[in-house]
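Long-time lurker. I teach an intro course on protein structure, and each term I like to show students one example going from raw sequence to a predicted 3D structure in C-alpha cell notation. This year I'd like something fresh instead of my usual example. Would anyone be willing to generate the C-alpha cells for the chain below so I can use it in lecture? Attribution to the forum is fine with me.
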Amino acid sequence: MKLKFQRNYALIALFIFCLELCIALFFHDRFIRPFVGDVLATAGVYCLLRIFDLSKAKSLFSALSISFVIELLQYLHFLEWAGLYDIRWLRTVLGSSFSVADLWAYAIGGLLAVSLDVSSGIRADGGPDPIKRVWSDPDAILLIFAGCSAEFALSKHVDWLFFTGKIPNQPIDRMVSTLSYAQKLLFTDPETRKLHLQQLVEVHAGVGQKRGFQIPNEAFMDVLNMLIFQTIEAYETCFEKLSEIEKEEIFLEFRSIGEGMQIQNLPNTWEECQQWRAIAMQANYSFSHESDKLFDAYKRNLGSFTFGALKFVYKAFLPQKLLNKTLWRTQIFNKSLFEILFWFRRNLIMRSFLFRFLPESLHKLKLIFEAQKHPQIAVMKQN
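-- Reply from a regular --
Happy to contribute to a lecture. Here you go:
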C-alpha cells in the first residue's frame, strides 16, 4: 500500500509536541504534567500515525497500544532492569512510575483525538472537506433540494417514482427523506454505510419484484449523477470555486456509494463522469406527463407563491440543456444574482441566507439543517 504524507496532521503533531515540551519545562504540578501531558501524548502519537495516511481505526489502535506498552514497561521497571534509568531524556520520554490514572489518560487522549478527527470536517492536506462543508450548510442543502427536485421530475425514469404512489402524493416529504438519507451515507463510517446500502439494495429489489422487473441501472446512475453535480453547484454558489481535484474527490465519494448500491458501469474518473453527465442531459431527461404531474404536486404541497420562488431557483441553477426541456425556458432570475447574494453572506459571515426566508411549507427541511452543528446525529433522527 502506498502511503501519502498528510501535511495537516504533521502540523498538529508538531503543535502537540511543542505543548508537551512546554509542559515538561514549566509545569511540575500533579495534574497538567502527569494527566494532561499523557492525554496529549496519545493524541500526538495518533496524529503522527495519521501523517502517513493510516486509517482512523488503525491509528487509534496503534496509538493506544504504544501508550499502554510504555506504561507496562514502567510497571516492569524496564529502565532499571536495562540499566538505562540514569539517562534523563529516556526517563522523561518513557516515564518512571506506573499509574492506573495514566491508562485512563491515554484512553481519553486517543478517543478525544479520533472524535475530533471524525467531526472536524478538515482534510488531512488542510482545508475544509467539501462534502462535509456543503452537506452541513443550510443554504447549500436548500439549493441541492431545489436542483434535485427538478431533475427528479424531468427524469425519463420518473415513472418509477410513481409506482409506489408516495412521491406524487408527498413529494416534499419524499425529497427530504432522499436527501437526508444521502447525507447520512456521506457522514457515516464505511462499515455502517455498507450496511445501509445493502438494506437499500434489498428495498429496491423488493420494489422491482412487485412491479415485475427491476429498476433500470440507468435510473440509479442518473440519481447518482444528479447528486454529484448538484453538490458541486451548491458548493460553488455558497462558498468558492472548486478545483478539478476537489470535484474528483466529490465524485469518488459518491462513486463509492454507487458501488455499495451495486450500480453497474460507473465511470472510473472525473473526466468520464462529466462525459456521462453530458450524454445523460441529452438522452435521459424530458418534460413528460409524469413531470407535469410531479411539478403540480410540488405546487400543491408548497403553495403557489413558494413554488413560484422555486421556479426562479430552477431558472438560475438548472443546466441550460435541462431548462430547455421545461415549459419555462426564460432565465428571469440569473445565477449571477444568487452569486452576489452569497458573496454578501460570506463577507458578512452569515450562517445562512435563504434559510431565513424558508416558508412553513418547507419546514421539514429543518431536519436536515440540524446537521450544521451535529451532522452525524441529526441525520439519524430522521430514520
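Some talking points for your students: Residues 236 and 242 are 6 Å apart (CA to CA). Residues 371-383 have pLDDT under 50 and may be disordered.
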